[in-house]
Amino acid sequence: MTTAIQPQPGIMDIALYQGGASKIEGQASPLKLSSNENPFGASPKATAAVTEAAMGLHRYPSTDHKPLREAIGRVHGLSADRIICGVGSDEILTLLAMAFAGPGDEVLYTEHGFSLYRIFALSAGATPVVAPETNRCVDVDALIAKITQATRLIYIANPANPTGTALDMAELTRLADAVPDSCLLVLDGAYAEFFNGYDGGASLVTARENVVMTRTFSKLYGLGGLRVGWGYASREIIDVLNRIRGPFNMSSVALSGAEAAVNDREFVATCLKENAEQRARLTGGVRQLGIACDDSQANFVMARFADEAEALAADAHLKSVGILVRLVKGYGFPEALRITVGQAEDVTRVLDALASFKGAA
Ligand SMILES: *Cc1c(COP(=O)(O)O)cnc(C)c1O
Question: By C-alpha distance, which of 313, 327, 303, 307 is closest to 361?
Fold first, then answer.
């Protein structure tokens, strides 16, 4: 680039996002447990809706996403005019930063928080601020201690990625109580459904002007490739976000697929039940092998080995038997591997592979 053409300050500090690996050299179809995708795929009803929508590709999609917002509202008991749909929840999270933070402002998240939060802050020209966690959990007091007059946004994922740990409603409420009116608390609920009894923070959003919830179709609904997420906030905040989002951000295919998916409650119930059972099996099995693992409230577990060398050796062994998991050194856990909860036979494969790894060590 010529020196006369320069991006906004902060942008060149962004390191490119690294997604979960999807290929192993020399393996035709690896078992991919690196991106927290639904092991059962998408609802057949969503796939059928997508196929049908493909017949109308020459038409522009709706700009107000009303049918999808109403379907989401019905299922979650929320008012559709407080919902916004985006190209993955990533888009909602990034619109929040663009709309509410800028140069001189601070965007706060935690030590092991989702790697995109830093990117959202820097893209908006704001300053990222990191609060420490305690025992791999968001520490409400440590977070509160980092709030300043310049803090405009706080991002936390609950349950968190990559740890799988979660704050209960009492802790979330305590945090929300401490956030000043001038600052937005963004509850990233990418894994909210997997945390039994948790509403993603919707009740907090309903009661307060400065709390926002984001949700996604990429994890539980198995639609990561379709790119659909949504946010729930006050009407004023939704109005602000609607002004800066692209009018045709959601394709007609994405809108139709997501609407069919959210309405297929039977598929959702089956996936949740399987995830809970297999998560317990995976957690128990990993621990039995002498590998540390916190209780997870999501659709993955984080296995902690003795050190980075052992984690890398375990990763290499898993790869050699065709299993892809996620290295999480970038999240501050060089000694750990994040493993998506698969179907029963996938969990058996992972546990067998880890047992043979431990046996050979
Ligand atoms: C996967 C994930 C998201 C969601 O991404 P989409 O853009 O909706 O696919 C958001 N936050 C966290 C913490 C995630 O792990």
Answer: 313
**Residues 301-336: pLDDT tens digits?**
999 999 999 999 999 999 999 999 999 999 999 999
Domain spans of the chain, in order of start: 18-41+266-360, 44-263
- Give 116 Cα–ligand 1 centroid separation in angstroms: 9
* C-beta of 110 in contact with ligand 1 (< 6 A): no
What is residue 361's predicted lDDT score, i.e. its pLDDT? 63
For a substitution probing ligand 1, which of 89, 117, 227, 228 has the most ligand atoms within 8 Å of its CB?
Answer: 89
The tokens describing 318, both together, are 């898993």
Atom of ligand 1 nearest to the CA of 219: 1
For residue 61, CA distances in Å to 208, 230, 254, 255, 290 come to 32, 17, 10, 8, 52
Bond from prior residue into 162 cis (ω within 30 degrees of 0): yes
- The domain defined by 18-41+266-360 folds into Aspartate Aminotransferase, domain 1 (3.90.1150)
Instruction: Compute, in angstroms, the gap from residue 89 CA to the centroid of ligand 1.
Output: 6
CB 89 within 8 A of CB 217: no
**Does CATH number 3.40.640.10 belong to domain 44-263?**
yes
| Of 161, 217, 326, best ligand 1 pocket probe by most atoms within 8 Å of the beta carbon | 161
pLDDT in tens, 87-102: 999 999 999 999 999 9
Counting atoms of ligand 1 from 1, which one is nearest the CA of 87?
Answer: 7
Q: Round to whole Å and give the CA distance between 76 and 150.
A: 34
214 lines ligand 1 (CB under 6 A): no
Which atom of ligand 1 is closest in space to residue 216's alpha carbon?
8
User: What does the alpha-carbon distance between residue 236 and residue 4 come to, in Å, rounded to a whole number?
Assistant: 39
pTM over 0.70: yes
